[in-house]
Amino acid sequence: MTHALEMINGIGPTIASKLRGIGITSIEALAVTPPRFISEATGISEKVAIQLCKNARELLNITFITADEYFKRRLSIGKITTGCKALDNLLDGGIETGAITEFAGEFGTGKTQIAHQLSVTVQLPKEEGGLEGATLYVDTEGTFRPERIVQIAPRFNLDGKEALRNIVFARAYNSDHQMLIIDEASNVIEEHNVKLIVVDSLIGHFRGEFPGRENLALRQQKLNRHIRQLLSLADAYNLAVIVTNQVMANPAIFFGNPNKPAGGHVLAHNCTYRVWLRKAKGNKRVARIFDSPMHPEAECTFQINEIGIVDIEE
Ligand code: ADP
Ligand code: MG
Question: What are the residue ranges of helices labelled H in 175-292?
């Protein structure tokens, strides 16, 4: 699973790393990329590139699997605890690898706090709900706070400084920069054993740089490419991806008008799990899961305090 590209005839570590270097991280991605582009971008001869694409397509054609094999494959999926029982129950154990989980909500609903907390819990041993892995944290809004990690870590019996060392941080200053970070993520993922990618927030830059209807097509196209890339990393490395999405208060507007907020239907088609967050009385937060292929629509409540996301005490 982890080194999908190497399953292809003719691909060893050198070619695989060249391909990953230009963002081709899966057999699927290779199969659909024009050989000429691969040749120009990597220096691999066009003849070889044509053969590799052909091999990739052949391999895909023979990967029909029966549902019980698919079920077995699903058993290799890892889960990361959120550190909050109510949220874990809602998500059937935590955040899944091989998938994108979206946290959508208004400003201040806890999206960034959840991202911080998962960056810590992914480091936990498997018995404690983690994956003993690191986080690649892509911050587009400048809201990542190392201090917060140091506050959250001790609660999970992790040393704050140690926890910080397991978070690879990248600040994305615009949408191209954000896409480039993900294009080049493969090396970092392998080097640090990254098991969680955070993109907080996913579409802020895209929305700002491509405003209005006239830019909608281009924006959605770019966003789509970005999300597909995240999905292929999730798949190739069996890691979890969480993205945040700042949206307006009224979910009815969100569902009613796919252009508002930006990314509406591109997200809807590509995020495996979607969690809607809202504020409730007494400084509580409500999380609702929607659009899930396997979870019932359900809600839970949690709180945010100085040690992070916590259950509400009865
Ligand atoms: P957003 O959904 O906009 O990303 P955040 O995840 O940043 O929102 O959540 C912000 C909320 O988290 C604030 O309203 C605050 O109540 C809470 N919060 C953040 N840091 C702390 C802290 N150190 N102690 C208590 N609550 C905090
Ligand atoms: Mg935030």
Answer: 175-183, 185-192, 204-209, 216-236, 251-256, 264-270
Residue-wise pLDDT for 11-54, tens only, equals: 999 999 999 888 888 887 888 788 888 898 899 999 999 999 88
107 ligand 1 Cβ < 6 A: yes
Tens digits of residue pLDDT in 190-214: 999 999 999 999 999 998 998 888 8
Is-contact 206 222, C-beta < 8 A? yes
- How far is the centre of ligand 2, averaged over its atoms, from the C-alpha of 112 (Å)? 4
- 5-59 belongs to which CATH class? mainly alpha
CB-based neighbours (< 5 A) of ligand 2, an ion: 111-112, 143
Q: What are the structural domain ranges in the chain?
A: 5-59, 73-310
Tell me which CATH code domain 73-310 carries: 3.40.50.300
pTM of the model: 0.79
Residue pair 3/189 in contact (Cβ under 8 Å)? The answer is: no
| Assigned token pair, 270 | 């590509």
